[in-house]
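U., I forgot to send this yesterday:
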Amino acid sequence: MATILQLSSTPSPQLIHQVAQCLQEGGVVAVPTDSFYGLAVSPFNQGALERLMHIKGDRSHKPFPVLIGDPSQLTQLTEGIPDVARTLMKKFWPGLLTLVLQARSTLSPILTGGQGTIGVRQPNDPRVCELMKHTGPLTGTSANRTGQSPAQSAEDVTQQLGSVVDLIVDGGPTPGGQPSTVLQLVNGLRVLREGAVTRKQLAGILGQFSLGPHE
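Result:
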C-alpha cells in the first residue's frame, strides 16, 4: 500500500525530499490540487508515464495535463509562449484554466497524446506550488481510474488506488467542483472544455483576440 505523508500549511523539507526522491525513481504520487487530487509523475520520465497510463486505464490516447509551480517552468514544456497566453496567465493563474500550448518536441507522445501540444496550468494551492518549485513540473491528471469518480481526499485515493501508487500526500479534503477550463492556443483559440472559467470571462479578457466556437 501507498505511504501517506501529511502536508501542513507549508511542505516540510522532509516531505519535499521524500516526494522528490520518489519521483526521480519513477514513482507515482497523489497530491491535492485546487479541485481534486491528482496523480503526479515527472513528465520527463518515460517509465513513470507508462506506469501512469496503466493506472488510469483506457484513455484513447488522451494527453496528460501538467501542473507547474511557477510560470518560469513553462520553458521546460514549450518553446514559445504567445502574448495571449501571458495575458491569460496574468489574469487566471494560479487557478482553474489549462492552456494548451505547442509542446517541446522532446516530450513523450504519452504526455502529449501524440498531438504535439501540452496542456498546462498553475494550481491555486500554494503548498503544491511550493512543492513543485523543488520537484519541477508534474502531471496533474485526476487521481482515479478512467470512468470512476475523481478523488477529493487522501482516503478516496487510498480506496481507489492505494495499492498502485507509491505516495499519497494528504493535504486534507479538496473543494471539488468544476474542473479546469481547457483553452487551446495553437492554430487559433478554442475552448476544448468549459469548466470553472467561463467563456464569458475569457472573452472579457481576450478582447482583440478571437475566441473560436466550442469544440
